[in-house]
Write a structure and sequence with these properties.
The structure is a single chain. This protein has 262 residues and is α/β, with parallel strands linked by helices. It has helices spanning 16-27, 39-53, 69-83, 106-134, 156-176, 195-207, 213-221, 234-241; strands spanning 7-11, 31-36, 59-63, 88-91, 138-143, 181-188, 252-255. Strands 3-2-1-4-5-6-7 form a seven-stranded parallel beta sheet, with helices on both faces.
Amino acid sequence: MKLSEKVAVVTGGARGIGLAIARRYLAEGAKVIVADIDKGAIEDAVEQLQNEAGGSERVMGVHLDVCDQASIDGLVKAVIQRFGGIDILVNNAAVFDMAPVLEVTEQSYDKQFNVNVKGTFFTLQAVAKAMVERGQGGKIINMASQAGRRGEALVSMYCASKAAVISLTQSCGLDLIKHGINVNGIAPGVVDTPMWKEVDALFARYENRPLGEKKRLVGEAVPYGRMGRPEDHVGAAVFLASDDSDYVVAQTLNVDGGNWMS
């Protein structure tokens, strides 16, 4: 019970890695807020978690658009009203797109940077303000990606947005630690989530591959021997949210089966 009675907000928490983290945080004793833009997915996720937790008092769902400051502020206000404060934020909400450099559109650029960078930063800022005002410190975890460690020909904007997340994690971590707020990140590799169906289809289009081939190839290329699963990331998320990580500041931990070493 490393997170007993802690209040944890997980953005993009209704599916994939976010839902896996929310589930593990509940098991570790936390009160968990599932924040997501998909209202239907929130309802399903909250129902699942409530059933697993044996009740509703430790689970809360909040509709969140990380591109809208009013929505972010509403999330913070609602959580404080319900639970009194926020101890942990997992900035997990993100979007993905890909195209050759000569075909990247302004719309695709704006969407990825608005969600992955602007949304991450201003959610972090709003929660950090509440943490500072409360005076009890906190833990903030930004979900980056191995894509932020390198460039990829077809994934220029996503790589750039996740590199920005790693950079923000460093700068925010250095600035906020004086308030007792640890800001760190997790960089997953290739993860087998429902989103990979869309990713695989894009690779099939741009690399002229049959559907499913790219997913198979990237899984085989992971030194561990398979693609990651959402559950593979929850241990790192618990560590970075717990007292065990008090002396870890402004770091981004690779959880990718050995794909990247830094």
